[in-house]
Design a protein that fits this description.
Helix content is about 40%, strand content about 20%. The chain is of the alpha+beta class.
Length: about 525
């Protein structure tokens, strides 16, 4: 008899079906032991020895696994293919050894990136031993979490009544939110004016903005008051304009790579309004599979953007069928990771079978919407670039003192945009740089040397705005840029901050509560190295 141990009961059922009657598949229900939250669970003076305990439920499950292990000829540890999964396998093995449940039993470790029959059978054919380096990495992180949390939290309880805890990632994430709030409070708005003119050059009307006044180039924040705006307006009214140049530039836009854990959390927040936790719960169900078909997506805790050759071939076939050969690039696209501490152990998140179109599935709402997002992103990532014509028209007075510019772009071939466009984080209003650089309006056909008549002029007053508060998407992005935490822990970190009432979420924005600001000020004052971004 072969005993297979996985993490979740849903997975156990599906895998049992693939492996048949010679296998018994049991679930550990996630982690089986943890460090008790009392003094002495990690002893730095005793070479960081760690004392583990199982709770009542965990102990009961471990006894069931030990009973089954005594009857088995071979034990296969098939927990998730990441550091936590490796750790669970190690914990199970440690307990079985303690309980003397392994006499001459052969123990092996297998991992699969997708719960499909082919992936599971291939994994079973290629077992390995437990990867002790991954286990050591888990132990180091767990010890650090315990020591940071357990050393700082009691200090907080004594000094700041009402403060609930400090933590290795949690306290730094809180500091990011508090720092942003302080930036917003210190911010002094600057007045600036924008000036636009509606023109025609024996053509349909088009809009241009002021880029040159009194012979000087005008940046976005240069016109600071109404008097300057009125002078510029008068110069445009009095001017005699000619089209100096019409520059058409073909531009290619490439698709974004398929999802990693963090980009999935960001896009689901932007496009579906999901919290990181809701995204991960739905992704977990899609990975484990909802019915007889097995898993619908590959493993959802990853920071790799590579895709297996079979995935690439499937995507290219689907694109050719659904959208036509013009949308299939000559070569498959390969992506590289930009994140600081990416550990690219797995491929990107993608449907296990890309030919399974979202419309062919009937899933509950969250799962359906998330699957569709993952499917579209994967298919788009392997499509031909979008081709655009970007046009810039420079219009000047004969004396060269006043200049206007009109920009527009036309999509000449939609490419991947036929399927998917990446969501954007809001830009800070009133930041430096030219306005309208990503202008998507269309311009009429215009000729160099043609006279341009001014039909109307608009002068508008604006004020620069403070940097926006973090949303889940932008906070996850910031943590990832700084290389803080792992993608799989972002969801629990953000919900801890909410549960402890250190932050509140209003209209999908994080606002620090007084308690959170106090904790951050206290830690920065007395324990600054614990909350350093690096």
């Amino acid at each position: 008899m072969n005993l297979v141990i996985v993490e979740s009961p849903a997975k156990a059922k599906t895998i049992n079906k693939y492996l048949g009657s010679d296998y018994e598949v049991l679930a550990s229900y996630g982690h089986v032991r943890d460090l008790p939250s009392k003094d002495g669970s990690v002893l730095p003076d005793d070479d960081f020895s760690m004392h583990w305990e199982a709770d009542a439920k965990g102990a009961k499950r471990l006894s069931e696994i030990a009973e089954a292990a005594k009857r088995a000829d071979r034990i296969i540890l098939a927990t998730d293919p990441d550091r936590e999964g490796e750790a669970i396998s190690w914990h199970v093995l440690e307990v079985l050894n303690k309980k003397k449940a392994l006499k001459d039993t052969h123990v092996e470790r297998v991992t699969f990136n997708a719960i499909t029959k082919s992936a599971v059978l291939e994994a079973m054919a290629n077992p390995r031993q437990i990867d002790m380096e991954l286990v050591e990495a888990y132990l180091a992180r767990r010890a650090l979490d315990y020591l940071v949390g357990f050393t700082l939290s009691p200090v907080l309880w004594r000094k700041l009544p009402g403060a609930r805890s400090a933590g290795r990632v949690q306290s730094v994430a809180l500091r990011i939110v508090v720092d942003r709030e302080m930036e917003i409070e210190k911010f002094k708005p600057q007045e600036y004016w924008s000036i636009e003119a509606d023109l025609n050059a024996d053509s349909p009307p088009f809009t241009a903005r002021l880029v040159k006044h009194a012979g000087k180039r005008v940046q976005r924040l240069d016109i600071k008051d109404e008097a300057t705006a009125a002078a510029a307006r008068a110069a445009i009214q009095a001017g005699d304009f000619t089209i100096n140049s019409v520059e058409k530039k073909p531009v290619r836009r490439n698709p974004a790579p398929p999802f990693t854990t963090s980009t999935l959390q960001q896009e689901a927040a932007r496009k579906l309004g999901f919290t990181a936790q809701r995204t991960m719960q739905a992704a977990q169900k899609l990975y484990e599979g909802v019915d007889e078909t097995g898993g619908l997506i590959t493993y959802m805790r990853t920071d790799g953007v590579s895709v297996s050759p079979e995935g690439l071939a499937q995507a290219r076939e689907v694109i050719g069928k659904e959208y036509g050969p013009a949308y299939v690039p000559a070569e498959p696209r390969h992506y590289k990771v930009k994140a600081k501490n990416a550990q690219e152990a797995h491929e990107a998140i993608r449907p296990t079978n890309i030919a399974r179109h979202p419309d062919s599935l009937r899933l509950e709402s969250d799962l359906q919407r998330l699957y569709e997002l993952i499917w579209k992103r994967m298919v788009a990532s392997q499509m031909e670039a979008a081709r655009l014509d970007r046009t810039t028209v420079e219009i000047e007075t004969s004396d060269g003192l006043t200049g206007l510019r009109a920009t527009g772009q036309v999509v000449t071939f939609d490419g991947f945009l036929a399927v998917y466009e990446e969501g954007r984080d809001e830009k800070q209003k009133g930041a430096e740089g030219d306005e309208g650089e990503d202008d998507t309006s269309r311009l009429p056909a215009l000729k160099e040397g043609a006279k341009a008549k001014v039909d109307a002029i608009r002068t508008d007053q604006h004020f620069t705005e403070p940097p926006p508060r973090y949303s889940e998407a932008t906070l996850v992005k910031k943590l990832e840029e700084l290389g803080i935490g792992r993608p799989s822990t972002y969801a629990s970190t953000l919900s801890t901050l909410r549960d402890r009432e250190y932050v509140r979420v209003d209209k999908n924005r994080f606002y620090p509560e007084d308690k959170g600001r106090l904790v951050t000020a206290f830690l920065e004052q007395f324990f600054s190295k614990w909350v350093e971004y690096d």
